[in-house]
């Protein structure tokens, strides 16, 4: 099973959408093996957004991400990275397809409700940044044989 990181951003927290995002992930058949609310600081944001920290728009992203708590989720599932990113929709929420989290619930690029890891390498790095091993709780889903039926059978 693959793991990925999802951040429920401050705009989703402010709008009371935490449950709706979590419900969508669980209804898809993904497992939440780590979850915590946290307030981000500049050091963590500079590490998480290292690829953006020298961009002129980074201060606005940082201010937004520190404006309210976030919910960090470690998600586990078959092809979890690809599945979660598909469920989120494209970054510009106005262009996100209906049926996606952003397409149904957001209207902005910065205030687009969620962050999801984009590759196995970034997922591993981001999960390690937001969670210690003691904060992750892998478990056997007793219905997994109904959710993850092998392809071709």
Keywords:
alpha+beta, Alpha-Beta Plaits
What does it look like?
This protein is α+β, with helices and mostly antiparallel strands and 153 residues long. The chain has one domain (2-147): Alpha-Beta Plaits. The protein has helices at residues 10-14, 18-28, 42-48, 58-65, 80-88, 101-105, 120-130, 144-147; strands spanning 2-8, 31-38, 70-77, 114-116. It has a four-stranded antiparallel beta sheet with strand order 2-3-1-4. The two termini are 19 Å apart. The mean pLDDT is 93.
Sheet with most strands: 4 strands, antiparallel
Name the beta content range. 15-25%
CATH superfamily: Nucleoside diphosphate kinase-like domain
Please identify the structural class as seen in this structure: alpha+beta
Fold blueprint:
Blueprint (H helix, E strand, L loop, with lengths): L1 E7 L1 H5 L3 H11 L2 E8 L3 H7 L9 H8 L4 E8 L2 H9 L12 H5 L8 E3 L3 H11 L13 H4 L6
